[in-house]
Amino acid sequence: MATATTATTALVIVPTYNERANLPVLVAGLMAHPNVRVMVVDDQSPDGTGELADQLAREHPGRIEVMHRTARRGLGRSYIDGIKKAVHEPVDVICQMDADLSHDPAHLPDLIAATDRADVVIGSRYVAGGEIRNWPMRRRLLSRFANMYIRSVTRLSARDCTSGYRCWRRETLASLPLDRFISDGYSFLVEMLFVAARRGAHIGEVPITFVERREGESKLSRAVLFESAITPWRLIGTKGSAVRGSR
Ligand SMILES: Nc1nc2c(ncn2[C@@H]2O[C@H](COP(=O)(O)OP(=O)(O)OP(=O)(O)O)[C@@H](O)[C@H]2O)c(=O)[nH]1
Ligand SMILES: [Mg+2]
After folding, report:
1. Is 219 a pocket residue for ligand 1 (Cβ < 6 Å)?
2. Which of residues 237 and 206 earns the better pLDDT score?
3. What is the pLDDT of residues 85-97, one digit of tens each?
4. Alpha-carbon distance 67 to 52, whole Å?
5. Residue 243 falls within a domain, yes or no?
6. What percent of the chain has pLDDT over 90?
7. Which CATH number goes with the domain that contains 173?
8. Taking ligand 2, which is a single-atom ion, which protein residues have CB atoms under 5 Å away?
9. Does some domain include residue 218?
């Protein structure tokens, strides 16, 4: 709904590691939306993405902030630090988004608007209207298999559990026990969703067209894949997860 989109304030957390070529394009796309702010969480990118983000913040006063992390590098860790700060900001929704232009800022109003009907909204490749561009068959199969695997082990109902493009109602995100989260990488995204669902959050999905990165390098490693295979089983087990416990 257009009215909800314009009235709703959003803070988009964007973790970055060596995204110098992509960040200015992403920021330009996001700044086109009124009521949208950005928090870049940079892990001391060797290519100078952090300094570039500082420059962008100066160009858009009050709309962009930059967190320069110095602790151990990691996507999940970056999100945890970013979210802990973001939940104290006076915004209605908090979004997660990759910097590599796989996630088109043009979809953001759809995601934000759908928080009217859900506590967390996934930008989904696997609902009607969703699409993937420029992925080789091998990568498509891996992602499809990962989602089937995750859904059958965890019983999560979402079609795209590994999408990193999401919008959360701020209170829903604030209620997650982030300090008890264990995983990093893709698994962190699955863990967030699983814990939120167990706590009664309603998950919505809106279609996106996902476009493979053109600039920079993927950080998908063997360690990340291994973790992804283990995590669903850990989540449904009784020990050590953030699932149990009170808010
Ligand atoms: N702060 C931070 N950001 C990271 C780290 N690793 C990846 N990122 C960012 O997380 C987002 C997703 O990373 P990608 O390398 O695109 O990983 P991916 O999307 O899983 O892999 P591809 O599909 O191959 O692109 C991008 O914005 C990266 O810059 C990290 O260790 N720290
Ligand atoms: Mg990517």
Report:
1. yes
2. 206
3. 999 999 999 999 9
4. 12
5. no
6. 83
7. 3.90.550.10
8. 98, 100, 102
9. yes
Taking the C-alpha atoms of residue 30 and residue 49, their distance in angstroms, rounded to an integer, is 17
Residue 48 confidence (pLDDT) above 50? yes
Cα 163 to ligand 2 centre (Å): 10
Quick one: which ligand is closest to 185's CA? Answer: 1
Residue 217 belongs to a domain: yes
What is the three-class DSSP state of 75? helix
Pairwise CA distance, residues 51 & 192, whole Å? 30
Q: Say if ligand 1 is within 6 A of residue 115 CB.
A: no
The DSSP call for residue 214 is S
If you average pLDDT over every residue of the chain, what do you get? 92
Please measure the distance between the N-terminal and C-terminal CA atoms of the chain and give it in whole angstroms. 31
Mutate to test the pocket of ligand 1, among 49, 100, 141 (most ligand atoms within 8 A of CB): 100
Per-residue pLDDT, averaged over 190-209, amounts to 97
Question: Does ligand 1 lie within 6 Å of residue 98's CB atom?
Answer: yes
pLDDT tens for each residue of 102-139: 999 999 999 999 999 999 999 999 999 999 999 999 99
Q: Is 123 in the pocket of ligand 1 (CB under 6 A)?
A: no
Contact 81, 143 (CB under 8 A): no
Give the three-class secondary structure for 15: strand
Confidence (pLDDT) at 243: 55
Q: How many domains does the chain have?
A: 1
Per the structure, the complete domain to which residue 61 belongs is given by 2-236
Distance CA 83, CA 41 (A): 10
Instruction: Judge whether 62 lies within some domain.
Output: yes
